[in-house]
Structures are given as structure tokens and as C-alpha cells.
Amino acid sequence: MERQAMELATRIGGAASVLAAILVLVAACQAGPTYGPDAYELGNIDPSNEIPKASPAQLADTFERFCIDGPRQFDAAESGLRKAGFVPRPTRGDYVTFVSDDRRPAVKVSARGAACMVESLSRTGQSERLADLVRRRFPEARPLEALQGRRDLERVWQLDSGIVFLMRSGSPYATSRLMFGIWHGSPASRQAADHRLPAI
User: Fold this and answer.
1) 81 & 169 share domain
2) Across 14-28, 32-46, 51-65, 180-194, least confident range
């Protein structure tokens, strides 16, 4: 198609040739489906970077930046994540997953503003680093022993207005994932809190 445009431009000459070339190229672009920038960026991402084996420091820093210090309102959270180089994956339901191509953990945000999580493949040192973060940022946090061990829950802490949770999926002898997040709102019961946690 570009060759045809050049041949046409040569025949016509002058400013009209430029216009003709543009029209031919535009027609070629319109012949196929239209994609947004997210599709192109996600299409080139290394699959291993979507849910990477993030370091303990990356997990903690990303969680603090977007899930503690970042806005709860979805539009504002999305804007901040995009400016930081994250792109949302196509999704259904309440949770939207944002990924990057630089091995930072994925960030999962509730469209209702109810929760925010970071997700990574399991790696040494993660649990201890995240427990330190809870002690530092949430001194009021109390372990919820009754919830631990349910639905892949490794650790759960109750806050004054919500819960912080650490989940794992998979086998310790194969690829496993970690999800660390915060759910806003005091659970009225163990069952209410459990049902609001996302599937990992």
C-alpha cells in the first residue's frame, strides 16, 4: 500500500501528491479493526512480567504507593497507575488488574473502591517483609486467627476499618502466587469478610 501511495505521488506531483499519499494510507488503516493503545502495549508485554516474581521490596513499595497512600476512588487510582506506567488488562467483574512490563507486581483495584491488592509469584523474603509493613503502617492491626487457612489465606489482620490479607495459590513444589491486599470496611462477620476477598 505504501508503494502505491508513492507511485501515485510521483504521477501527480506537488502538494496534491502529499494529499493523495495520505488518503491512500488512511484508507489502508481503516480497512482493518481499530485497536486502542492499551491493546498494543499489552500485546508486546513479556508474559512473565504480567505477574512477575517481584522482590519483597517491590511488593511492599508498590502496595504502600497505590493501596495505602493512593486514592481509593477508582478513576483517580487508575490515573495514578497509568502515569506510573501500568496498563489495565481486559477484565470482567469488580476487580481490574493493572500490569507493567518492568517486573513490578501487578496491582488489582476494586472498581467500587472497596479493595486494593498487589500480586506476584512467590519469592523468598516476601512474607516477612509484608508482615513488617503491617506492623509499621498499621500498628492497630490484630491477627484474625479464625480466618487464616481459609481460601488460601496465609495471614489476616483486622484494622479499625477493614482487613489486610496475604493469600497464596498453587503448590509449594511448583509455581505459586502471592496476593497482598487491603479490604476497606469492618467485616460484620467472618463470613462477610471471607466472601469479599477476591479469587487469586
Assistant:
1) yes
2) 14-28
Report the pLDDT averaged over residues 86-91: 89
107 and 15, same domain (yes or no): no
- Of the candidates 15, 115, 126, the one whose C-alpha atom is nearest the C-alpha of residue 72 is 115
Alpha helix segments (H runs only) across the chain: 2-12, 14-30, 37-43, 47-50, 56-63, 74-83, 126-137, 190-196
- Three-class SS of 5-51: HHHHHHHHCHHHHHHHHHHHHHHHHHCCCCCCHHHHHHHCCCHHHHC
Using the Cα atoms of residue 87, residue 198, residue 187 and residue 60 in order, give the sign of their dihedral: negative
Residues 151 and 188 in one domain: yes
74-122-195-147 Cα dihedral, nearest 10 degrees? -130
Range of the domain at 170: 47-196
Spacing of C-alpha 58 from chain mean position: 14
pLDDT exceeds 80 at position 190: no
The mean pLDDT value of the chain amounts to 80
Residue 24 shares a structural domain with residue 62: no
